[in-house]
Design a protein that fits this description.
Helix content is about 80%, strand content about 0%. It has helices at about 10-40, 45-60, 70-90, 90-105, 110-115.
C-alpha cells in the first residue's frame, strides 16, 4: 500500500490508462487537423487562387530572352491556357462546386421560412 491508500498496481494501471487516453486524444486531434487542412486547401477560393498563380507562373515562364513573348509562344500559351481551363472545369472539385451552388440557388432564402412560421 502506498501513502494514498491505493496499491502500486492500481497506480500503475491509472498511469497507463492516462497515457492511453492522452495518445488517443493526440491521434484524434491530428486527424481533425488533417481534415481541416484538406477542407481549407480544397475550398473554392484556394482552388481559384492556385489556378491564378499557375496561370501567372505559366505566362511568365513562356517569355523569350528579351522579355517579350514571341508570336508562336503567345499562341502556345493561349492554347495551353485553354486546355488547362477545360481540364480544370471538368475536374471533380469544380463539378462538385457547381452542383452545390446550383442546389443553393434552388433553395428558397432563409427569410421565406421565418415569414411563413409567424
Amino acid at each position: 500500500m502506498s501513502r494514498h491508500g491505493i496499491s502500486a498496481d492500481a497506480q500503475i494501471a491509472l498511469v497507463q490508462q492516462r497515457i492511453y487516453l492522452h495518445r488517443l486524444a493526440l491521434r484524434l486531434s491530428v486527424d481533425a487537423g488533417k481534415q481541416a487542412l484538406r477542407e481549407r486547401l480544397s475550398a473554392p477560393s484556394m482552388l481559384l487562387t492556385a489556378a491564378g498563380l499557375g496561370f501567372v507562373a505559366g505566362r511568365l515562364s513562356k517569355r523569350t530572352e528579351r522579355g517579350r513573348p514571341s508570336a508562336m509562344n503567345r499562341w502556345w500559351a493561349l492554347s495551353d491556357t485553354a486546355i488547362t481551363a477545360l481540364r480544370f472545369a471538368q475536374s471533380g472539385r469544380v463539378l462538385w462546386l457547381v452542383r452545390n451552388l446550383a442546389a443553393r440557388a434552388q433553395q428558397p432564402p432563409a427569410s421565406a421560412f421565418t415569414s411563413q412560421q409567424r
